[in-house]
Amino acid sequence: MSAFTAVYWKEVRENLRDRRTLINALVTGPLLGPVMFIMLMNVTITREIAKADRLIAVPVIGADLAPNLVAALKSAGIDARPALTDPENAVREQRADIVVRVSPDYAKAWNKGQSVQVELIYDSSRRDASTPVMRVRSVVESYGRREGAMRLIARGLSPTTAWPVQVADRDQATSQSRSGLMFSFLPYFFVLTVFLGGMYLAIDLTAGERERQSLEPLFVNPVPRWQILAGKLAAICTFSLVSLLLTVGAFMTAPWFIPTEKLGIALDLGWRFSGQVIVLMLPLILLLAALQSLVSAFAKSYREAQTYLSILMIIPILPSVLLSVIPVRAEPWMYAVPLLGQNLGIVQLLRGDGVPGWQLGFCLAGGFVAAALAVWAAAMLYRSERLAISG
Amino acid sequence: MIEVRDLYKAFGEVRAVNGVSFTARDGEITGLLGPNGAGKTTTLRMLYTLMKPDSGQVLVDGVDAYTDALAVRRRLGVLPDARGLYKRLTAAENIDYFGKLHGMEPTLLASRREALIDGLEMRDIASRRTEGFSQGQRVKTAIARALVHDPRNVLLDEPTNGLDVMATRAMRRFMRQLKDEGRCVLFSSHIMQEVAALCDRIVVIAHGRVVADETPAALLAQTGQSSLEDAFVKIIGTDEGLAA
Question: Which of A151, A236, A280, B14 could form a disulfide with A198 if both were Cys (CB 3.0 to 4.6 A apart)?
Fold first, then answer.
């Protein structure tokens, strides 16, 4: 085993001297996720909060026909702006978020006690306009309900006659599970960090050695190739593990920088969360190290390996994307699928649901089986005659 | 001692080595001479167990290279065609790495490393990182790291390739020293003058076959030529791919 430690320490020492590897493993990789996360959350939160309280101005067509409705809007912080000539186009061209059109026979119908139409012109595909639309709609609807109740009372009827069924919302989401929804892309950051942490090492230790023509002299030493591979894999795993620890540590500080209490959500990224994330990620560290070595071993040069690995980097995004596009119920087998299992587990942790023992077991077992297969494939490739030949 | 018996190796349609046999003895320098592409590097790669011959046998000090590859590698010091060094390590660290892979004790490794650094006159570069080394400095480092475990048999693939005159002379001196220490030295070259100046025995390879295996004097006698250069050209049939 002395060959294993010799390879391991040489690779660690050599790569500690390489600025590019160090920056990637210890700075860019671990900090990219938390910094992007904090910035994104802050931008979203400030925007949402600003929209909810801000005075907004909405063009109202036929405002003079419905002075009471306009007054109701104004009391809710919505100012009526002068009418536009072509409201549909104005919304389409994003000159207005929403336009209110009061029907021309509003006054006449109102006085007769008939129902009248108030049109809301908006574009539901524009997400940034959804808050103003919601605000205007709720003001108009509650104004209508209030006026309806007044009419019933005026006719000597109880307002409840008109609304035999009342809807009462009982949302079971906890403040933590709401935050879980918002942070569902967080698992990807952990995977990405592990990937970036080991990537340059993996390239250097296979394609790099080949390109520098140092693999042939290395294989002439009286050491079985699997021991050389084991030492290299251990070095890659060390770097990606350090990356993961750094990024988890950086995420622990995230709640200090995000005003989560303003949104009424809780963000628990404490020791318990961090510890469980690290355990969940352990199989991925080995799996990715082996996959990266395998892919790099196919490449003839450093650059070629870099290209292959950037393609490989897309794969870990897939579970996150899939889960957000097709929100499926988690089936037991899914926990045993590497990447998918980690994704589900980390989102559950964020929601505050915890990960039961059997799910953790599935995650680790599935991950380590996949990792073992990848290591075996890499070992097979290392045995091949052509691997060492640079020319 | 290295014995090669009837080696064959083909890459697809190309028969790189087509029945090569020879013996390199202890205390002698054996030269493997042949034009570029004659199969020298492939032959050497089979000797140091990087490649498996399609058929034939390699014995190093009587140990079969394919039944016990690790034991054979322990008996060999190899300067392969590829001389890549680790550029972020110093020359001394490069040497130490290979010593550790051979499982050497730290004290033995240190004394052996220092002896090689002196023997190869590379004291001035020993603690420098190898990035930016000249060709000569690289070859010295590569040889030191190949010989750190004090092997009885030394294989050198084109050891003077790319070296200037001074470095070439130093290299030849070093090879004679290895011979005087009683080691078996086998080196390949496509430079006739070099082979003539150094070798006790010359194995000429062309088109994957051994076309001559003699002492320099016997080669002259056999071909009836007065210079070794003419003798080689006569044996190989052409001077293509050779250098004076």
Answer: A236
Q: B80 to chain A: which residues are within 8 Å by CB? A: 216-217, 220
Pairing of the two strands B2-11 and B55-60:
antiparallel
The answer to whether B86 contacts A7, with C-beta atoms less than 8 Å apart, is no
Residue whose structure tokens are 């890499």: A378
Domain boundaries, given as residue ranges, for chain A:
3-45+176-388, 55-157
List pLDDT tens digits, range B96-106: 999 999 999 99
Q: Is the pLDDT of residue A182 over 70?
A: no
- Mean of per-residue pLDDT scores for chain B: 89
Query: Strand A118-122 vs strand A98-102: parallel, antiparallel, or unpaired?
Result: antiparallel
d(CA B86, CA B79): 15
Both structure tokens of A391: 């020319």
Q: What is the pTM of this model?
A: 0.82
- CATH number of the domain at A55-157, out of 3.40.1710.10, 3.40.50.970, 3.30.70.20, 3.30.70.2860? 3.40.1710.10
Q: Identity (one letter) of the amino acid at A330? A: A
Per-residue pLDDT tens over the stretch A105-162: 888 888 888 888 889 999 888 877 887 888 889 889 989 888 888 888 888 888 888 7
ipTM given for this complex? 0.91
Give the chain B residue whose CA is nearest to the CA of A210: B84
Longest dimension (CA), chain B: 55
Torsion of Cα atoms, B109 then B112 then B117 then B118, to 10°: 150
Across the interface, whether the CB atoms of A221 and B73 are under 8 A apart is answered: yes
Q: Which residue in this structure is represented by tokens 């190796």? A: B9
Residue at token pair 């390489």: A18
Contact A15, A21 (CB under 8 A): yes
